[in-house]
DNA sequence: CTCCCGATAT
DNA sequence: ATATCAGGAG
């Protein structure tokens, strides 16, 4: 029986905003293409690991055509340490080919077009839209957002798309991006997956999952 | 549902 | 030895 806690949402969100003013993404990027690549690489990997790889990767691959024309086994080696390297290399190259052939070499700035890229679903698309283009299409639901939204009682769903829908109704549209980043920060710093530090949590007194 | 997969913390 | 990491495809 999952505890629902929707009435505590406003208070919890205010406290988390105070705890993490101006949350910033941890992935390093300078262009929408770099953001797209970094986000695809970030699946089941840490931001630290991704940044380590993209530092060299972005020097070597400067346009979508560099990915589209790359030798696939060489691209695999270049991203190896992020894990899932065969899938990710294939997705990067196929996405680059779709972008160069169907979108004139420019990373698309709509949800509909981004979802046409292999390896890109709503979580990745939401990040690229929000941080790359300033478009508020939805809320990026990654493993941290999913875990914290569940623990805090903001949703009873398990499907990320349904969780996103629940959160979109709860959170102010102009705060969607900050909401994702804040939950990710709190998940990394305090509300750990394995052993949450409820004693250090600013909202433990409002959290239905708190063990303190 | 399973599979992809290396790096790191515990 | 095992759980986890800005997930997505088949």
Structural class: mainly alpha
From the 3D structure, determine the CATH topology of the largest domain.
Endonuclease III, domain 1
Order of helices and strands: HHHHHHHHHHH
Q: Low-confidence spans: pLDDT under 50, at least 5 residues?
A: none
CATH-derived architecture of the largest domain: Orthogonal Bundle
Silhouette = elongated
Number of strands: 0
The share of residues in helices is: 40-55%
CATH homologous superfamily annotation of the largest domain? Hypothetical protein, domain 2
CATH class of the largest domain: Mainly Alpha
Largest sheet: none
Distance between the termini: 19 Å
| Binned strand content | under 5%
SS summary, helix count: 11
Mean of pLDDT: 95
Radius of gyration: 18 Å
Q: How many structural domains are formed by the residues?
A: 2
Key descriptive features of the protein:
Endonuclease Iii, domain 2, 11 helices, 212 residues, DNA-binding, mainly alpha, single chain, Endonuclease III, domain 1, elongated
């Amino acid at each position: 029986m999952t505890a629902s806690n929707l009435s505590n949402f406003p208070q919890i969100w205010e406290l988390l905003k105070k705890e993490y003013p101006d949350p910033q993404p941890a992935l390093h990027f300078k262009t929408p293409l770099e953001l797209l690549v970094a986000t695809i690489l970030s699946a089941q990997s840490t931001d630290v690991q991704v940044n380590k790889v993209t530092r060299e990767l972005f020097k070597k691959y400067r346009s979508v055509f560099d990915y589209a024309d790359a030798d696939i086994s060489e691209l695999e080696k270049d991203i190896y340490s992020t894990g899932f390297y065969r899938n990710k290399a294939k997705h990067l190259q196929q996405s680059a080919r779709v972008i160069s052939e169907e979108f004139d070499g420019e990373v698309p700035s709509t949800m509909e077009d981004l979802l046409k890229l292999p390896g890109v679903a709503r979580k990745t698309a939401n990040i690229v839209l929000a941080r790359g283009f300033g478009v508020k299409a939805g809320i990026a639901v990654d493993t941290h957002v999913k875990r914290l939204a569940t623990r805090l009682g903001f949703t009873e769903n398990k499907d990320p798309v349904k969780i996103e829908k629940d959160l979109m109704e709860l959170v102010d549209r102009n705060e969607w991006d900050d909401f994702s980043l804040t939950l990710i920060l709190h998940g990394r710093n305090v509300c750990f997956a394995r052993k949450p530090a409820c004693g250090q949590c600013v909202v433990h007194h409002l959290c239905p999952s708190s063990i303190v």
